[in-house]
Amino acid sequence: MDEILHINNVTKAYEDLTVLDHVSFSVNKGEVVVIVGPSGCGKSTLLRCINAFETIQDGNIVLGGETINPCKEQLHAVRERIGMVFQSYELFPHKTVLQNMTLAPMKVKKIGRKAAEQEAMALLERVGLTEKRDYYPRQLSGGQKQRVAIVRALMMHPEVLLLDEITAALDPEMVREVLEVVIDLAAEGRTMVIVTHELSFARAVADRMIFLDGGRIVEEGTPEAFFDAPGTERLQKFLHSFTYQG
After folding, report:
1. Quick one: 5 exposed, middle or buried, by C-beta within 10 A (0-12, 13-18, 19+)?
2. Buried b (16+ CB within 10 A) or exposed e, 165-180
3. How far apart are CA 39 and CA 159, in angstroms?
4. Is the pLDDT of residue 31 over 90?
5. Which residues contact 17 (CB under 8 A, 6 or more apart)?
């Protein structure tokens, strides 16, 4: 498989607190890598470093053979190639669903309004939200907002999609509708790096699992090996802390 993203010895610290400690792994084109770990282990920070929302103190991040440099001149180009969906949706409250989806393609990629709206409507139909095109975020449920956030990211045709705890703010009954969208994206071969605490979802969608603890990768492997035969006592303890049903 073709490597599309390489994280090499990435270290991130805030003053005396090291959040990421020489983290290294690669992601192949079409692969879904799921990162799990206890709260505060550096999962979300890692995604923010990949997308250049955070600077790093050591190591480098390479996307498609090009090193990501979080200087202002490169940020827009990087973020065109890497899509990110946040736990808190990050939709513009004063714009409709359709306007939220078409703004970036029109401004950044200079796509015409008609073409952008046609693609947006096709994506909204795919996630069952066609009738919400003229709604504002405040008129949507949490699950609907998150589905809009996902397809908004897809509008930019990213090479890699980063998903950061996208179900953490949702009521339990809304979680499934969001996870089904992600499972469909995985089935069509989207390259994704996902941070989640939903272990049953992680097992269903992942090609590879990574367990992060204390800013370091403790264990990684296939979902089968990860869940059925964890190789470290630390991962065993972590899995046992969940009411995980295989």
Report:
1. buried
2. bbbeebeeebbebbbe
3. 28
4. yes
5. none
Q: What are phi and psi of 191, to 5 degrees?
A: -85, 120
Convert the pLDDT of each residue in 207-241 to its tens digit: 999 999 999 999 999 999 999 999 999 999 999 88
Residue type for 136, please?
Y
Q: Tokens representing 97?
A: 């669903």
Rounded to the nearest 5 degrees, what angle is found at the Cα of 53, between the Cα atoms of 49 and 54?
55
Q: Residue 160 and residue 167: Cα distance in Å, rounded?
A: 19
Q: Is the CB of residue 65 less than 8 Å from the CB of residue 143?
A: no
> 């513009």: which residue's tokens?
92
Three-state SS for the chain is: CCEEEEEEEEEEEECCEEEEEEEEEEEECCCEEEEECCCCCCHHHHHHHHCCCCCCCEEEEEECCEECCCCHHHHHHHHHHEEEECCCCCCCCCCCHHHHHHHHHHHCCCCCHHHHHHHHHHHHHHCCCHHHCCCCHHHCCHHHHHHHHHHHHHCCCCCEEEEECCCCCCCHHHHHHHHHHHHHHHHCCCCEEEECCCHHHHHHHCCEEEEEECCEEEEEECHHHHHHCCCCHHHHHHHHCCCCCC
